[in-house]
Structure formats: structure tokens, C-alpha cells
């Protein structure tokens, strides 16, 4: 099915990309668990196309206990082996172990009274950055700063490019292109 809506160029060719773009991409996420889930999925995407992760997202959610950080933080070596044998997800040991460690860090932050949502949104003073809507960037000074802080805390697969893609996905930055039918509605959510 096609329609006459103008979308960001990356979202045109695949129906799943279109659906994700139209409903989720760039919408500000204010839920700690969902922010963490998306960051972990962006880490799994490293070296792959995002559509691969979208196609496997439900399998990831099932394999990682709904991305409940408390449950994932308790995963042990047997869980790593179970995940490595799961053809529904990206089977990369380092990324699986990074997700488990990421859940432990999320829990450590919570136990110190630091909310992951507040941590994430503090980088943009609680309000999404509105990019001009033309030209593509893979990183920004802010994604580099967030990456550095996440790495300092022990997160893995959080380089500046991954972090920028995550920022776009969770609405820390509105990067919908000029002319995209989602640009203004997403900007209004700020």
C-alpha cells in the first residue's frame, strides 16, 4: 500500500520502516525503561541496518524479558548461552553481555536515586533539540558528550554515532527532514 505522504528519505522503501517512522521515530520518550531498551537495541544495530533490528524487535523483547532492566540485570552465563542460541535476535556475545551490564548499570543508577529518564533528558535541558531538517549528520558534539558519559558509567556499544541514532529515535532531537509530514507534529510534542 502506498500513500502520498512525504517522509524522511530513509523511511520510504520498506513498510516496516514507514510504520516505525510514522508512529515512533522522533517522538519524545519519557519512560526510563523504554529509553534504556532503545539504547540497547541501537547497540545491537551497530554494523547492521536498523531494519534488521526492527524485524527482530519482538524476538529481542521476548528474549530479554520485555527489556525489564531488573530482570535482565539478573541474567547469568546460562542466559548468555540461551541468547546466543536464539536465531530470532542478533547473536553477538559482546552485545548480549553489554546489554546485561547495561541493565545492571541502570539498576545501580536507580538504587542511587538517579532516574535514567532524568539523566537522559538533562542533556537537552528537558526539551528536544529541533534540527533544521536538511542535511544528514552521524554525530554531534552533544552525542559525543553523551557517549563519553555513558562509557564513563560502563555502558558499551554507545559510541557517538549510535548515541546520535538513539537521540533521534527517542526524540531528544527532532531530525525529521523538511517536508516530512511528521516534522511539525513531532516538533509540537516538544
UniProtKB/TrEMBL annotation:
UniProt keyword list: Glycosidase, Hydrolase, Metal-binding, Zinc
The protein's Enzyme Commission number: 3.2.2.20
Enzyme class, spelled out: hydrolase
The keyword Iron belongs to this UniProt entry's keyword annotation: no
Listed Pfam families: Adenine_glyco
Keyword Hydrolase attached: yes
Residues that span the membrane, as ranges: none
GO function term, MF aspect, one: DNA-3-methyladenine glycosylase activity
InterPro entries the record matches: Adenine_glyco, DNA-3mA_glycosylase, DNA_glycosylase
Binding site for Zn(2+): 8, 21, 176, 180
Single biological process term from Gene Ontology: base-excision repair
Top-level division of the source organism's lineage: Bacteria
Protein name: DNA-3-methyladenine glycosylase I
Originating organism: Sphingomonas kyeonggiensis
